[in-house]
């Protein structure tokens, strides 16, 4: 990424969208809309002082909404360019409130609330489409109860939980446990506030609230308005502290997720959604199970799939090694349903086809290997570029020219072309570059000849 | 830049070291106290500036290095972070961007070699990180400025192999304006594709695809094709290879000079001698079936295909990627030619990855092709027109009649792959497939510069994948040959002719054949382009005449003594 950012022949236009494409192979005129960042690109050093100061907390999309960021942010720490961006939907200043602390904190004087979006015109010989894919939204599958059962997560959410720079620092905390911990934190704040209120009464009357309250209950102070208020506040305090105590006791028993279930073909090979095989998910489930086992050697994983498609170089060997060394069990079968058992444990109901038995099994965490879905904006971009889409929703190419779209001079690579893994994407990217250079070479030759 | 430094003759008193300690998010700071390491570093001899970064590799971290050099007049930079393997080039180029000679940069690995291995030992880990930083700073003080090595380039490429990958690579290169020489050992171009009937159930003829690819290449004026030819000898290095090609039936060898080489030698389907009663008549392989489909002589009524015939076994552990697709394609063709035929596919996992292949699988099921799973521990038994197998999902042993058994055998590397790999000094893996530089990020490169790989020589690939890879290799080559000269690292060995006695000890140790003997002077000499800076020669030389730049005894001893 940084290599691209630093390459003298590459101009990066991040946070930008293509508006219009005119012309033809060898001479395209592209209109690009550069969205307003409200941060001057040439001044921002990416130091991050602004986001330290920003008071507005927003769920972090990069961390799959499992963590938080500020209203001024960079997509992620190693992101290129490191220029920060103000999220206009959440920034206080941009929404008419008084703030501007980021501007005060910025030593580079890069914040510009008046920045406007800009239109840039480019003249290029060839265009490469590398817009990737969307993660299938598993809430569309009612029987897996994603979004309803807290401990059913997608593979990409699991990646963030596994990541050392993710929201849990790489600790496999379950979402249900994290929700309780967040609740504890909230209650503790409330308890501190109510503690201060009753402390005033205690000081005033020189007595602990508990002792006073026992006598008050017996009716000792009936009619005493001042003490009645004390009793009321003490009751409110108890209503916070007691559930807090219970929650803390519960949280004391929390451990990292140890029993993992990976469910394959979530949205893929499913005629209700996408009939195709997404190709890479068998491998990423195996990889995630192996890494989870590296995090805690007692971790066990069950991978539920129809076929385990370990088709790349070294993949079959990796799969076998995962089974032998990383407590991975491969279960041949499609999961019918997920329900919730005790302790927020998801229960997987499936037919073990090799044993010909319907079984249910409790896990700490269930990970859904979601389909490689065509980009939500695929149709829009296809119209704009005047290129066709295939039967599966990806950009159409031909068997003889697998990088060429239906319009000369426009090429496609990676998952915008169809589901594929990293080495294939990298190889395709190089091939698309070759096709693009061929177009440039041909147009230069034409120009010289004419 | 270095000239200025050379003239100034920096003595240890003039050394101004800047040390950057990277948190790597929590990768390092989560396990060791980076702030303590930073304040420790600030007090080390010659260190004039020390700074902690969240990510030194981020754009802001890089800016800190550049600004640090300028503001604090640094002439040495030490970064304590991750692995030099991935990040040293980045930090070095940042140093030169700020006007410092990049060879005055030193790196301490406090992540892979410290925080990751001492996750539960915060105190000890922090102390070790301090040690590593102190050692790096001690060495940095004695580093010398170097100049990158430059060499000329021959803007021509040799492509070995005239199958889909090789043809695509050659056509890709020629189309980008780079001259190509393609050699093919057979008398015709096209590779394995020539033996194939159709490429899909839609009747897309393989022969048409082959002639299309050949036509596209021969139309290019800057492509030379030698059939019936083999590479006999190769010498030289990236940018300047001398290749000897031997064409069958000709006495005179062909000599060519090229700058880069593409290996696209393909693979072959395994001949399954001794497996499942293979006999070449009624128990055949998919490639033999292709010939019958081509000739329209496949009149079998009960066809049984057995997947993983040889693959995913003890001997060939890998999955050959494309055989499931080939089986389903051929099953569909059989049904098309003879709708009355029964086709049964016995499999372990149907590897129909992606969009079109999975669609083909559903089509096959839809027209009545039967799929039955078998267990690897209890493989099918082929005998007297019957195939017996245990179907684990039914819990039954089944017997099906068959007048033709087709074995889906894996693609195996060519027998001469090891020989070719030795000749070119590139790696092959445990299965004898050519090994790329990085499985994920550099799938088409070899670790040896200037040589690339595409198609089934690397790993079994479909026609479309081989075509993509071939074109991809073309742009990998272009990244080198589009430049007017070659620039490589100065970290190479040098041999002092004053003290060398020509014992040849270093030459025997050198894995890159970068050392030659000069009989006139009776000394050994280093080819700085071939040398990879491994240091084998330096550790062997009895007279310490061979030394590795950046790792000279004085520099290493300073580092060791700082422990």
Tags for this entry?
heterodimer; A: 450 residues; alpha/beta; Alpha-Beta Plaits; FAD/NAD(P)-binding domain; 4 domains; 5-stranded parallel β-sheet; 3-stranded antiparallel β-sheet; 19 strands; 21% strand; B: 563 residues; 28 strands; 31% helix; 23% strand
Describe what you observe in this structure:
The complex is a heterodimer of chains A (450) and B (563). Chain A is an alpha/beta fold. Helix content of chain A is 34%, strand content 21%. Chain A has eleven helices and 19 strands. In chain A, strand 12 (300-305), helix 9 (315-325) and strand 13 form a beta-alpha-beta unit. The longest helix of chain A is centred in the middle third of the chain and has 31 residues, at 175-205. In chain A, 36% of the residues are buried. With 563 residues, chain B is an alpha/beta fold. Chain B is 31% helix and 23% strand. Chain B is built from 16 helices and 28 strands. In chain B, strands 8-7-6-12-23 form a five-stranded parallel β-sheet, with helices on one face. In chain B, strands 14-21-15-16-17 form a five-stranded parallel β-sheet. In chain B, strands 2-1-3-4 form a four-stranded parallel β-sheet, sandwiched between helices. In chain B, helix 7 packs parallel to helix 13 (463-481), helix 9 (286-295) packs parallel to helix 10 and helix 10 (323-337) runs parallel beside helix 11. Classes of the chains: A alpha/beta (450), B alpha/beta (563). At the A-B interface, helix 1, helix 9 and helix 11 of A face helix 3, helix 11 and helix 13 of B.
């Amino acid at each position: 990424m940084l290599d691209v950012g630093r390459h003298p022949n590459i101009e990066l236009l991040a946070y930008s969208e293509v508006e219009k494409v005119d012309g033809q192979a060898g001479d395209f005129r592209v209109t690009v809309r550069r969205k307003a960042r409200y941060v001057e690109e040439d001044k921002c050093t990416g130091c991050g002082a602004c986001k330290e100061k920003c008071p507005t907390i927003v769920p972090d999309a990069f961390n799959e909404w499992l963590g938080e960021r500020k209203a001024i942010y960079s997509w992620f720490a190693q992101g290129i360019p490191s220029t920060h961006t103000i999220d206009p939907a959440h920034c206080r200043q941009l929404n008419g409130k008084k703030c501007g602390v980021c501007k005060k904190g910025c030593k580079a004087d890069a914040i510009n609330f008046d920045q406007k979006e800009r239109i840039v015109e480019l003249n290029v010989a060839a265009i490469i489409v590398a817009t990737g894919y969307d993660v299938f939204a598993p809430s569309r599958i009612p029987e897996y109860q994603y979004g309803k059962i807290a401990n059913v997560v997608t593979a990409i959410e699991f990646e963030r939980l596994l990541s050392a720079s993710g929201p849990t620092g790489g600790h496999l905390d379950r979402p249900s446990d994290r929700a309780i911990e967040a609740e504890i934190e909230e209650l503790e704040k409330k308890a501190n506030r109510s503690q201060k209120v009753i402390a005033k009464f205690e000081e005033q009357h020189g007595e602990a609230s508990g002792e006073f309250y026992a006598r008050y209950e017996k009716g000792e102070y009936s009619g005493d308005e001042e003490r009645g208020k004390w009793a009321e506040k003490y009751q409110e305090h108890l209503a916070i502290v007691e559930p807090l105590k219970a929650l803390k006791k519960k949280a004391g028993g929390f451990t990292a997720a140890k029993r993992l279930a990976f469910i394959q073909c979530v949205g893929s090979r499913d005629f209700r959604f996408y009939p195709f095989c997404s190709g890479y998910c068998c491998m990423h489930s195996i990889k995630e199970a192996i890494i989870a086992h590296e995090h805690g050697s007692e971790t066990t994983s069950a991978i539920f799939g129809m076929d385990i498609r370990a088709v790349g170089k070294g993949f079959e060997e990796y799969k076998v090694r995962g089974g032998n060394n990383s407590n991975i069990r491969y279960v041949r079968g499609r999961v019918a349903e997920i329900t919730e058992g005790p302790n927020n444990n998801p229960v997987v109901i499936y037919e073990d086809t090799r044993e010909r038995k319907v079984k249910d099994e409790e896990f700490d965490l269930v990970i859904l290997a979601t389909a490689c879905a065509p980009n939500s904006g695929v149709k829009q971009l296809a119209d704009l570029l005047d290129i066709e889409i295939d039967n599966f929703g990806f950009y159409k190419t031909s068997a003889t020219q697998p990088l060429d779209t239906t319009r000369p001079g426009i090429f496609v690579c990676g998952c915008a072309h169809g589901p594929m893994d990293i080495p294939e994407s990298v190889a395709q990217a190089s091939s698309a570059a070759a096709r693009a250079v061929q177009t440039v070479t041909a147009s230069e030759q034409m120009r010289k000849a004419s | 830049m270095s000239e200025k430094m050379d003239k100034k003759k920096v003595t240890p008193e003039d050394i101004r070291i800047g040390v950057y300690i990277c948190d790597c998010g929590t990768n390092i700071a989560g396990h060791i106290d980076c702030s303590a390491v930073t304040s420790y570093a600030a007090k080390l001899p010659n260190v004039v500036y020390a700074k902690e970064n969240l990510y030194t590799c981020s754009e802001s971290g890089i800016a800190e290095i550049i600004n640090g050099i300028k503001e604090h007049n640094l002439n040495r930079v030490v970064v304590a972070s991750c692995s030099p393997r991935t990040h040293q080039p980045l930090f070095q180029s940042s140093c030169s961007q700020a006007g410092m000679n990049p060879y005055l940069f030193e790196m301490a690995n406090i992540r892979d070699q410290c925080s990751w291995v001492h996750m539960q030992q915060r105190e000890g880990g922090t102390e070790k990180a301090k040690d590593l930083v102190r050692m790096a700073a001690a060495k940095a003080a004695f580093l010398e400025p170097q100049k990158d090595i430059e060499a000329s380039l021959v803007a021509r490429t040799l492509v070995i192999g005239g199958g889909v990958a090789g043809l695509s690579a050659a056509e890709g290169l020629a189309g980008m304006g780079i001259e190509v020489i393609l050699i093919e050992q057979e008398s015709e171009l096209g590779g394995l594709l020539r033996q194939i009937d159709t490429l899909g159930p839609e009747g897309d003829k393989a022969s048409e695809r082959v002639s299309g690819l050949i036509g596209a290449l021969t139309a290019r004026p800057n492509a030379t094709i030698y059939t019936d030819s083999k590479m006999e000898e190769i010498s030289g290095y990236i940018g300047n290879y001398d290749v000897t090609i031997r064409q069958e039936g000709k006495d005179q060898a062909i000599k060519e000079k090229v700058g880069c080489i593409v290996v696209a030698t393909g693979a072959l389907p395994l001949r399954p001698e001794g497996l499942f009663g293979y006999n070449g008549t009624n128990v055949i392989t998919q490639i033999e079936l292709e010939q019958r489909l081509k000739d329209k002589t496949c009149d079998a009524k009960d066809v049984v295909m057995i997947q993983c015939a040889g693959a995913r076994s003890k001997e060939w552990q890998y999955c050959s990627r494309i055989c499931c697709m080939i089986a389903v394609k051929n099953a569909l063709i059989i049904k098309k030619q003879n709708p009355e035929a029964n086709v049964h596919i016995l499999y372990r996992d149907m590897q129909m990855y992606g969009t079109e292949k999975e669609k083909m699988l559903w089509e096959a099921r839809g027209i009545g092709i039967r799929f039955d799973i078998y267990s690897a521990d209890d493989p099918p038994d082929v005998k007297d027109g019957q195939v017996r197998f245990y179907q684990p999902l039914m819990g039954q042993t089944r017997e099906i009649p068959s007048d033709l058994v087709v074995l889906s055998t894996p693609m195996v590397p060519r027998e001469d792959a090891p020989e070719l790999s030795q000749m070119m000094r590139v790696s092959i893996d445990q299965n004898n497939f050519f090994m790329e530089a990085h499985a994920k990020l550099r799938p088409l490169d070899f670790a040896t510069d200037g040589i690339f790989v595409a198609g089934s020589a690397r790993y079994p690939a479909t026609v479309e994948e081989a075509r993509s890879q071939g074109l991809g290799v073309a742009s990998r080559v272009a990244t080198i040959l589009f430049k007017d000269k070659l620039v490589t690292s100065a970290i190479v060995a040098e041999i002092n002719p004053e003290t060398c006695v020509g014992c040849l000890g270093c030459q025997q140790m050198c894995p890159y054949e970068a050392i030659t003997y000069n009989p006139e002077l009776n000394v050994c000499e280093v080819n700085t382009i071939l040398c990879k800076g491994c240091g084998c020669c330096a550790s062997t030389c009895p007279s310490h005449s061979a030394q590795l730049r950046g790792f000279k005894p004085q520099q290493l001893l300073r580092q060791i003594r700082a422990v």
